[in-house]
Amino acid sequence: MIEYRHDLEGVNADQLEGFFEGWPAHPTSETHLELLRGSDAVVLAYDTTTSTVVGFVTAITDGVLAAYVPLLEVLPSHRGRGVGRELVTRIVARLDDLYMVDLVCDPGLLPFYESIGFRAGASAMIRNRSRQAGRAGG
After folding, report:
1. Is residue 136 over pLDDT 80?
2. At a CB cut-off of 8 Å and minimum separation 6, what does 65 contact?
3. Taking the mean position of all CA atoms in its chain, how far away is CA 124?
4. What would the pLDDT profile of 76-124 be if each residue is shown by its tens digit?
5. Residue 87 and residue 100: Cα distance in Å, rounded?
6. C-alpha to C-alpha distance for 88 and 79, rounded to whole angstroms
7. Residues facing 131 on adjacent strands
8. Model-level pTM?
């Protein structure tokens, strides 16, 4: 059974294995836990039968007007079951008092986000690929 949580109570790095599929250099489970702790808002999909996190979404916000959703991940074993949609729906609901909630995604993912209420827009970004696994030293 999937339970959705808005906090990290009882979550440890061992429960965060298998994420960042396809990343050439991905964060360790310890770094993953650190990024979850550093986010302003988090929603976790927790599988109560295996006691593992099977999906997550994070948001960074100024708490006044704007929020950015940098990460949404669902383990391959749980894709196609509506987990990602539920995670995004819940994080957007937590941020519904803000003027804007933005995210950047690959073009192939745009229909998914549009089906939840996002609209296509232009974006610009900097990617420091040498830091993809996280900052050196933590």
Report:
1. no
2. 98, 99, 100
3. 20
4. 999 999 999 999 999 999 999 999 999 999 999 999 999 999 999 999 9
5. 18
6. 14
7. none
8. 0.93
